[in-house]
Hints:
Strand order of the largest sheet: 5-4-3-2-1-8-7-6
CATH class: Mainly Beta
Order of helices and strands: EEEEEEEEH
CATH architecture: Roll
CATH superfamily: Bacterial Pleckstrin homology domain
Structural class: mainly beta
Radius of gyration: 14 Å
Number of domains: 1
Amino acid sequence: MIDFDNKTIFKLKQKQAYAEKVSDLLMDGEEVLDAFKSMRDGVVFTSKRIIAVNIQGITGSKKAFTSLPYKNIVAFSIETSGTLDIDSELELYFSEVGRVRFEFSGKARIKDIAHYIGRYAL
């Protein structure tokens, strides 16, 4: 499983093309809503879950996928970007996993992400 407390892994920028990395994992009727990438790792929000991708090794051919279903979210919070602090944050609390935190750089649409989670988790 991915170490969600390691901040360097999850400083994410929007990159829709990153969704291709999880295309083989999608279930029937599951749609990609948004995709974000850091240096090599990334996160894809779908209509059913969040899929975190951890690229491993020198060549990057080994990948770890962590599926976080919206139905297991018990609480979440967002922090929007400001004038001087352009980063935003998403904290999720899962019934079995505990706290998962993602940091987004740039102008991530954090309110849209909160809307996805609210729509599918509540």
